Amino acid sequence: CFDSGSSCEKCDFETDLCKALHELNLQPGWIRRSGRSGMGPPYSDHNGNNSAYFLSLSSEMRSSSATLRTNVFLPTDEEHVCQITFYYWIGQMSGTLMVGLQKHSEDTVTNIWQVSEELQNQWKTSTITINSTEKYEV
Length: 138
Known about the structure:
Helices cover 0% and strands 33% of the residues. Strand 4 (95-103) and strand 5 form a beta hairpin. It is an all-beta fold. The chain is built from no helices and seven strands. It is globular, with a radius of gyration of 16 Å. The strands form three sheets. The chain has a three-stranded antiparallel β-sheet, with no helix packed on it. It has two domains: 9-67, no CATH class; 72-137, no CATH class. InterPro entries: ConA-like_dom_sf (IPR013320), MAM_dom (IPR000998), MAM_domain-containing (IPR051560). This is MALR1 protein.
């Protein structure tokens, strides 16, 4: 859900990529699939729905990294808080999932959240609150 006002946006990958993510900018390694795809766990989304879609890293990407980038978000203030809640699954091999913030005046991406876990084989959730006085991408 983005924004404390009425502009909350839900993103479930059922029909395509989310509006928040760059359309057609799915980097190599990311695939949109469901639990029925025959590609191994997870076999359902976080609600236990095996026909629901989610994004997954393909098995060829096990030794490298892949990035997802959002569209540009407007600056935050007291009225417009940006809060992003997401579900994640780390399985098969250990890995690190990171969320970075890139402000428009900066070339570098600042790491604002990360998790490194061994095989968990369960969905977990996290909520990140972002403050930025300028336009940014996540």
